[in-house]
Amino acid sequence: MAQGLEEERAGTTAKAGPDIIYAAIDQNEHDLKEINRKIFENPELAFEEHQAHDNIVKLLKSKGFAVTQRAYGIETSFEAEYGSGGRVVVFNAEYDALPGIGHACGHNLIATASIAAFLGVAEALKKSGKEGRVRLLGTPAEENKGGKRLLVAAGAYKDVDAALMLHPGAQSRHNGRSGTAYAHTLANEKLVVRFKGKAAHASMYPFNGVNALDAVMLSYSAISMLRQQIRPYERIHGIVNEGGKAPNVIPDSASLNYVIRSNTKKEAMRLKDRVLKCFEGAAIATGCDWEIDMNEYFQYSDLRPNKKICTMFAEAMDDLNSPVNCDLQSQVPGLGSTDMGNVSYVCPGFHGFYGIPTEEGAYNHTPGFTKFAGKAEAHDLTIVAAKGMATAGWRVLESELVAQKVWQDFDDDEETQIYSP
Which InterPro entries match (predicted)? Predict the structure, then answer.
């Protein structure tokens, strides 16, 4: 009788795999399409994603999930969980938009993919009766200030065995594959620097003034010259936030907003120190005081993709006839940055990329990409990728050996410089 019970359990567990996940996602297709549409048609900026928050919470509650609204003290974050005991897998949902161009990075699709994966894995846990918990975490403000940074600090990932999410990009095919399971992103340092001078009449008493705008312009020029002596994968880019209020008044206050990127957070901090010398030199040359606005300062770590999770996602996508690249030896530095990098430093992380069809030149963060992020074909491809991601997450929950390998990869992946000095 004991043997028969074991066989029955084994049979139940075998059924609670990809087929159940895929069926659950397909059964929720109408609701997934609707939440995608609502987020896309109502773009909201960082920490202002109130409609997205409320609409997703409403959807989850309608399906019987308990949801913590405004989770971890963040007004537009939420957390839903299904299951008990065992390991924990988190799917991160992003839903903030960009100023003026809406969902030009496809965060409507990112949220849809994570919601779909959560629903699929929850159903697999339910049908299998296995221990384990799956969470859907609302992670606002990826485009500015980084909600995941705050969630990490609040302990949202302290008991997590794997955190997963997907990101759409302009579709390009290589060897019949569109998308990448294993990819790095750059670390960055974002800062606003303000110079303080002394106001004076620009014509009558210029000798009484200390020109903060001059310090800004000297900084900008010095950084432009510095760019010649940085590594090919590094980036320094910025704007002038404030340069004065009237041409006949010497500005007593002026500021710049800069982003400094490099391959790892160690390298980004080192490059930041070189940039700070440009600000310091400009202040000395002009007689201004200067300071970093700490309310505007934040860091994104480089992404440390977990090799085992990436491999499992790629295998699942092969089974779904939507293959992606998965070169675990790739040392190509990333181009953009994400606060998912911060998460990947505290638990095993996955941030896969998949392609959606766009017109020539319609890349992320352009109005052209916004147009295609709202199309039905982009949604359909997102659902396929979500099934692959859900399968990878499920394997972490249901297999002790897989979970051990995931953590071994995380432990082995010490912070390194892919391109050494």
Answer: Amidohydrolase, Bact_exopeptidase_dim_dom, Peptidase_M20, Peptidase_M20/M20A_hydrolases, Peptidase_M20_dimer, Xaa-Arg_dipeptidase
